[in-house]
Structure formats: structure tokens, C-alpha cells
Amino acid sequence: VQLIESGGGLVQDGGSLRLSCTASGRSFSTYVMGWFRQAPGKAREFVASIDWRSDFKLGGSVQGRFTISRDAANMMFLQMNNLKPDDTAVYYCAVRTLEYVGASEDSGDYAWWGRGTQVTVYS
């Protein structure tokens, strides 16, 4: 199993980026997939998750600015608008351990992780 994130980069305050996560090795169509982020010196933080019905959950700090989506082919996306310097972090794609189990903000509930993609927002 492999999860690969892409789409990170350097963007100005107020700008937008779209992250992608591609999963391979097995189907995750019946699993919750999620995004987490970790800034230097800070704990890993829940960003968003989406389940097999495309029901989603967003972290409080990104509501109204970020959108999560997925397709039927093991891909997940994070559209990030109105980015702020506080959004600077490494963003990780993750898949929840058990299928048909709903959203979780706890990183310990996710078994598969990508290596992350850096997002840097400058003012």
C-alpha cells in the first residue's frame, strides 16, 4: 500500500492550492480518508476527512476555506482557499484503519500514511 501526496508549494497569503492524494496497492473505497498537517514544533493536527459516501468533516481552523473530496478511483483532494501563514505545515494523507467506520480526528485511528507534502504560505 502506498499513499502519495502532491500539490504542495509556496503561496502568498490569501492564495490557493489543491492537494491530491493517490492511493495504490488496494482499494480504499469503503474507508474514511483524511488529511492531517504538522507544523514545526507542533503536534499533528486534523484537517479534514471524507467517508465512502462523501460525507465529510473539517477541522475548526479550516472551515469555510478548505474543501475535501474524493473519487471512486482511490484519489482524494483538498482544495485550500484563502490560505494563511498559520496554514504552513507538512500535509499528510491518511486512511482509517477499519472500513465502514466513520470519521475520526484522532491520528491514531489511521493506519496508512503518506510521506507528506510541504505547504508554505508567506505574507
Report mean pLDDT, rounded to a whole number. Answer: 96
Approximately how much beta-strand content do the residues carry? over 45%
Largest sheet: 7 strands, mixed
CA(first)-CA(last) distance: 37 Å
Order of helices and strands: EEEEEEEEEEE
Report the uncertain regions: none
Helix content: under 10%
Which structural class best describes the helix and strand composition?
mainly beta
Cα Rg: 13 Å
Tell me, what's the shape?
Answer: globular
Give a description of the structure.
With 123 residues, the chain is mostly beta strands. It contains no helices and eleven strands. Strands 2, 4, 5, 6, 9, 10 and 11 form a seven-stranded mixed beta sheet that branches. It is globular, with a radius of gyration of 13 Å. The N and C termini lie far apart (37 Å). The model has no long low-confidence stretch (mean pLDDT 96).
Summarize the structure.
The protein has 123 residues and is mainly beta. It has strands at 2-6, 9-12, 17-24, 33-38, 45-50, 56-58, 66-70, 75-80, 89-96, 110-113, 117-122. It has no helices and eleven strands.
Layout: helices, strands, pairs:
Blueprint: E1 2-6, E2 9-12, E3 17-24, E4 33-38, E5 45-50, E6 56-58, E7 66-70, E8 75-80, E9 89-96, E10 110-113, E11 117-122
Parallel strand pairs: 2-11
Antiparallel strand pairs: 1-3, 3-8, 4-5, 4-9, 5-6, 7-8, 9-10, 9-11
